[in-house]
Amino acid sequence: MNPTYITFIGQMLSFAILIWFTVKFIWPPMMKAIEERQQKIAEGLAAADRSQKDLAQAQDKVNDALKEARSKANEIIEQAHTRANQIIDQAKNDAVAEANRQKALAEAEIAAAANRAKEELRKQVSSLAVTGAEKLLKREIDANAHKALIDDLAAQL
Fold first, then answer.
1. CA–CA separation, 58 vs 66, rounded Å?
2. By the 8 A CB rule, do 147 and 130 touch?
3. Residues 6 or more apart from 150 whose CB is under 8 A from it?
C-alpha cells in the first residue's frame, strides 16, 4: 500500500466521522435554532400585519367618530340658529305688541284728554252763554234752576 492511499483513507474516515458527528450532534440543534428563529420572525410579521389591520380599524373608527361629531356639531349649530331666529322673532313680536299696547294707551289718554277738554269747553261755553244771557236780560239767571236747559245747550255744542 502506498502511504498516500493510507493518508487518503484516513482523511476520508476523518471526514466521514466529522460528517457523522456534525449530522448527529451539531446539525439538529442548529436546525432547531434556525426553525425557532424563522417561527419568531413569522410571528413578528404576523403581529405587524395584525397591528396594521388594527391601526386601519382604529383609523376607521376615528374617522367615523369625527364624522359623527361633525354631524352632531352641525346639528347643534343648526339648532342654535333656529333658536336664535325664534328668540329674534319672539322679541320682534313682543316689541310690536308692546308698541301696540303703548299706542293704545296713548290713544286712550289722548281721547280722555280730548273728552276732558271738550267737557271743559262746554262748561266754559255754557258759562259764557249764561253770562251773556244775563247781560241781555239784565237780570240774574239761576244756573241750578236752568241746569237742564244749559246741559242741553252744551250737548248741542
1. 12
2. no
3. 126, 129, 130, 143
